[in-house]
Amino acid sequence: MISENSTKNTQARAFSYFAFAGNTGIFFGPLLGGVLESPADKFKSTFGRVRFFHDYPYALPGFAAASIGLSAAVLTACFVKEVGRIYPYGATVLTNCDRLCISMSTKRSPTGPPCPCLSS
């Protein structure tokens, strides 16, 4: 997806941003998890009365990671344009019949029988 959304001139920079973002997540993820663990003991005024966080001290880092992942999925679904191949016959998804037609077109002569998908 990165290569389809960048040009040959910007492709190296786009892939380096991708690697940098991954390494940033590897650095800040455990840091955030360590800060948010045991919130009932560390943040008594906010989470001290909530019994759930006494019973499950590692739930808050899990909720934080899940919310980051969910927001990334929603933002991706809303704002990233879909990239993909342009398939023959105007199809966006290849059916078994389309696959058959493609394999027939590479194995037969141009004067051979037409593809059964196009006869309808």
Roughly how much helix do the residues carry, as a percent range? 55-70%
What's the order of the H and E elements? HHHHHH
- The Rg value, from CA coordinates, equals 26 Å
Contiguous low-pLDDT stretches (5 residues minimum) are none
Number of helices: 6
Judged by helices, strands and strand pairing, the structural class is mainly alpha
Work out the count of structural domains: 2
Please report the total strand number as a whole number. Answer: 0
- The global form is elongated
**Mean pLDDT across every amino acid position:** 80
Distance between the termini: 34 Å
Q: Which percent range describes the beta-strand content?
A: under 5%
The biggest beta sheet is recorded as: none
Secondary-structure map:
Layout: H1 11-36, H2 39-42, H3 44-47, H4 51-55, H5 59-79, H6 96-107
Short description:
Helix content is 60%, strand content 0%.
Textual characterization of the structure:
This protein has 120 residues and is mainly α. It has 2 domains: 11-79, no CATH class; 86-120, no CATH class. The chain has helices at 11-36, 39-42, 44-47, 51-55, 59-79, 96-107. The longest helix has 26 residues, at 11-36. The model has no long low-confidence stretch (mean pLDDT 80).
